[in-house]
Amino acid sequence: AMAEAAGSGTGGSPEPGPGPGSGWRRPHGPLQRYYGPSAAETAEAAPDPADINGPHFDPEVFLNKVRSECPLGQLLAREAALGREIRALDSDMQTLLYENYNKFISATDTIRKMKVDFRRMEAEMDDLAANMAAISTSSARVSAALQDRHRRGAQLAGVQALLRKLQSLVEVPGRLRRWAAPGAEPARALRCHARARAVLRHYRHLPSFRAIEDESQAIMAELAQRLRARLRDETLEPKELSECVEMLLQLEEPPEELCQEFLSHAGARLEAELAALEAELPPADPPSGTAATPPPASDILDFVDRGSSSFVGTLCLLATSYRSLFQGHPGAGGGRLESFAATLTNRYFQLLERRLALERGLGDTSLLVRALDRFHRRLRARVQRYLRALQTFFLGCLGDVRQALAAPRPPGKEGPGLPDLLATLAASVLGQLKAVLAYVQLFTARDVAFASLPYFKGEFCVAAVREGLVVAFLRWLCRTARAFAESPPERGAPAAPPALLLLLARLCLDYEATTVSYVLTLTDEQFPPQDGDPAVTPAAELCAEARAAAQRLLDHYVQVQGAAVAQMLRKSVETRDWLGTVEPRNVRAVMKRVVEDITAIDVQVGQLFEEGVRRAQSSDSSRRAFSVYSSSRAPGRYAPSYTPSAPMDTHLLSNIQKLFSERIDIFSPVEFNKVSVLTGIIKISLKTLLECVRLRTLGRFGLQQVQVDGHYLQLYLWRFAADERVVQGLLDEVAASAAHRCLDPVPMEHSVVELICERG
């Protein structure tokens, strides 16, 4: 067999070689024999059973092929070559075995030790797992015990609170009996009964609670009887009368009956004061043949003074108490009060006319003039009272707006928006102002004799109504609104919410545009000025005050919102270790929060102000590269077009670049549009970030984190600003400052920065 196979080559089949006289191909290299043919060669070559190095080698096929194709000389040569190769392989095998014998022995020992160690580790892991299971079981038991203890503690606290409430309910009759006794504290008894009444009514079906309620009702019924008896006392003062009626209303007495008793008692008191004034006058129709009319008991000044201070003052006090007590009750409308006051006022004017008719002499009229002046002052005081009522109404409306803004919103349910609150506030204030003008207009009715006199009508219409009421209220409104932006809140008092500042700014702007002109025109129509009247405040002056208030409020809104965003950025910079931070993999959460807050502010401002004008944006604003080196700070490798002959200070280059760049005014006044407001807030926020970065020392990864955060802000903030160059310029300064403060300024590849920001 060896003789027959002597002529075959190492390559397998007897293929002719490249040289003359050589019919065999040289063997493949060692690497090819080790790794085998490539996948492409294997796929292209068909299975060859005669290939001695192939996976499909068949000895019988190979020998038959060699015997049939090769002559005897080639067979003998092949036999000798195969023998040499076999002996060489055996020698190499022995050498390899001798050289690595110690290694084989060491490897065997190592494997044996590893098996032992592995078994020991398995045992330790089993023990550890058992311990962990025991710890987990113990933790579960401890957690269950803690939860049970917490639950029992909560139940115990609830039981203790319930016991305290029950104890307080049991003590209610005793407290009511002590406080409702004659000469005690009935107001305190009413407060105690009001707190317990709802609970007692709810659990009335229980016998114990029914007994407590019945006893309490009996005590309060006795108190109501004593209060009604006191209400019939004719010597009761107006203040005491109001307190008595208020307590009866709290006891759920019928408002209609109390209203009638209140007016009856007030009427008796006012009738007595009118009777005292009438007693000083002679009879209106003296019988014929009597002596001359005796002189009055007091002079005209004393008569008018007592009438204005006693009768008019008491009437105003009782009217105010009536409105505060019975406002909202359907059976006690304002019509009763108006008819009641009109009847008594007409009688007072009749007595005043009769007393003035007694002044027939041609002597000294100084007392008469002073008396008329006192009466006129009472009229001007009435106008001032209307002004205070308007101011109180406006403050009440502001309180309602603040409450609506601060009210919690349940999920899925939205409250009134800013446009609705603005419309309600503006309509309410304007409606109240028109109602007050209608009340004051009664003094200038045609059936009033003195209303047609020029010296009264001119001064009253201009000085009292237009200037003293309307203009004074408009100026007070602007000052009050502006005070939210100028005066700091009192200690302990909450600051004005930003939404209120925005709403008041829009209100003042609307007043400047239309409301001031409308109100002054309406006033001039209802109270026309006379020729020769003093100069009036022009509408342009009031409009300027309203616009100045709106500007101050909007600027303060920008500062407040910018300070809120800046505070987040400042805390995020100051509390981070920029030297020891890890390589950035995400955008920091505070940057996402900044974008969310700016978006919310954009929605809020857009409800009340127009969009505004933006500078034409570039097509790649959101993809603009954000480098930690600005054009003035880039070293030579980032600016190959410029190679200085000597080293140059990059900080000096940055300062030179700033001289030729456009200056960004951070706290400039904003315009009345959404884009300008958002630009101001963004400038304050990014300026704060810049100043905070300038005070920190950064490592390489800290610089790269600033690079990632800045690029993320650039992606989203440019669309809110009026000019994207403002955002880009401030972010470039942030990056330049970070690079200047960095110990190892190696920036991150821009493609990686984009990937992180897109993923974030």
From TrEMBL:
Chief place of localization: Golgi
Alphabetic keyword roster: Endosome, Golgi apparatus, Lipid transport, Protein transport, Transport
Q: Does the keyword Transport apply?
A: yes
GO CC term, one of those recorded: GARP complex
The UniProt record lists the keyword Mitochondrion: no
- Where does this protein reside within or beyond the cell? Golgi apparatus, trans-Golgi network; Recycling endosome
What InterPro entries does its record include? Vps51
Any Pfam family hit? VPS51_Exo84_N
Bias (Low complexity) occurs at: 39-51
Which residues does the annotated region (Disordered) include? 1-56
| Biological process according to GO | endocytic recycling; Golgi organization; Golgi vesicle transport; lipid transport; lysosomal transport; protein transport; retrograde transport, endosome to Golgi
- Quote the PANTHER family the UniProt record gives: VACUOLAR PROTEIN SORTING-ASSOCIATED PROTEIN 51 HOMOLOG
| Record's function text | Involved in retrograde transport from early and late endosomes to the late Golgi. The GARP complex is required for the maintenance of protein retrieval from endosomes to the TGN, acid hydrolase sorting, lysosome function, endosomal cholesterol traffic and autophagy. Acts as component of the EARP complex that is involved in endocytic recycling.
Subunit composition?
A: Component of the Golgi-associated retrograde protein (GARP) complex. Component of the endosome-associated retrograde protein (EARP) complex.
Q: Which family does it belong to?
A: Belongs to the VPS51 family.
Task: Name it.
Answer: Vacuolar protein sorting-associated protein 51 homolog
Task: Provide the gene name from the record.
Answer: Vps51
